[in-house]
Amino acid sequence: MSPEQGAVLLCYHCGNKTFMDLINNHRLVNSDDISDNYVNVQYSVEFVRNWYTYACKVCGEITLKREEWFSEDTHHDGRPILKSQIVYPQVTNKESNMPNGVFEAFEAAIKVRHLDGAICVLSLRRALERMCNDKGATQRNLYRKLKFLADSKILPPILDEMAYILKQLGNAAAHADDVTFDEHLVSSMIEFTQMILDYVYNMPEKLKSVQKLMGVVEGRVID
Ligand SMILES: [Zn+2]
């Protein structure tokens, strides 16, 4: 299915995976001429960004997807590496190094956010637990695992505190305690989890790509 008509996407508003109509598309190309006096070559580089706005047929809400590629950032066969990301509604980046189990638990939480707040929080907790395991935490419970990540400086102290709140709420959900999981609380927990996952998985990658871009601008390559 070409993006001109639409695409089958998971709607992060209602949780349905459905065909969505493409209602708008915006493309922006930045190009720059590079000259390397040392080897006496001139060439141009392109940074392309494409935004697609889709409308969900089930709930009517809007999803905004961004695709981008940089002509110098290529696969072995020379094709540019395409990076694709849902930028609205809020969802974490699947294209990063995040292991599948972690992303799937996060995605499961999004799918039930409007159906069952307690199950949503449990799934967020599962995503964190898997993140801890992936980062080498072998402690016997989530709190100790998170503490290990904070002590190892994989998590900064403020995110560690957020994760602790999530852990407490997850416990309450698991033991059917009398906690009201209202939409605002659930949304905040999703936001916290996303920040933690972005910090652990996406920020290092973003830093690397900025360093790579700087290397190109300065006429040198950083591996
Ligand atoms: Zn929807």
From TrEMBL:
Q: What is this protein called?
A: DUF4145 domain-containing protein
Q: Which organism is it from?
A: Xylanibacillus composti
Q: A single Pfam family, by name?
A: DUF4145
Task: Tell me the ranges covered by the DUF4145 domain, including all copies.
Answer: 112-193
Q: Where on the tree of life does the source sit, at the highest rank?
A: Bacteria
Database matches in InterPro entries: DUF4145
